[in-house]
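Why run this: before we spend reagent on co-expression, it is cheaper to look at a predicted model of the complex and decide which construct boundaries make sense. The entries below are exactly what would go into the expression plan.
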Amino acid sequence: MTNRMLDTQDPCGAVLIALADPTRRRIFEVLVHKPRSVAAVAQTVPVSRPAVSQHLRQLSDAGLVTVTKEGTRNIYAARREGVEVLRRYLDGLWSDVLTAFAEHVELKEQK
Amino acid sequence: MTNRMLDTQDPCGAVLIALADPTRRRIFEVLVHKPRSVAAVAQTVPVSRPAVSQHLRQLSDAGLVTVTKEGTRNIYAARREGVEVLRRYLDGLWSDVLTAFAEHVELKEQK
DNA sequence: ACTTACGGTAAGTTATGACTAACCGAATGC
DNA sequence: GCATTCGGTTAGTCATAACTTACCGTAAGT
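The model came back. Tokens follow.
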């Protein structure tokens, strides 16, 4: 039996951290609307281009965006599956078997 | 015409920030399993009680938990509606009318 | 009344993360 | 070849946020 605790452990921590920052969330939303180059993204946000590059790195590490080299420029695009990870986490919060198990334990402890 | 941008603005920013911190997310998960007092929560997490108190404050401000005074102790409980706000944000990312509008603008700009 | 458990608040420290400026390599155009 | 555009990386600064210790009010127990 594989340990479900380990499987479920923190697949969305990076996603939450990535989306928590206002600038980074804005960048992500911009990319949801349309894939763009780094410079194009930088124009839509009040920070420098290197800052955008660093944010894109974090978004990429979190699986929220993809990169495709297109000549000299890198086109970033939002990844639906990235937010799916987070959605599944939210869905599993109350319905997770761990919750059921925990409640079961609680009931046992009460007697 | 009311500005939908303003209506939609940042209802989940506080939620994302609250859940982004590992300790705070752990506390929230613990409360999902079962409502607990502050001291009880503090036992499940490797930080001091005042730290837990501060985290609970943030979770409360984000609408993720509720408090009910019970004698001398404060019982905190996870709030399902709190995460619903975040889920709605995720759902609306691609289906939002703003996306459709933005794409419409893009097409217009291309001619 | 005194004591004890509970918990929020304040002040101060420390760590982390967001940002800029400067630098560098790589691909394109002349 | 040279200049230019694009973009990732580094070093360093600054702000914020997480944490602890100390303190104070409040509600219950004796």
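Residues 37-39, 49-50, 52-54, 57, 71-74 of chain A lie near DNA strand D (CB under 10 Å from a C1'). The mean pLDDT of chain A is 87. Bring this page to Monday's planning discussion.
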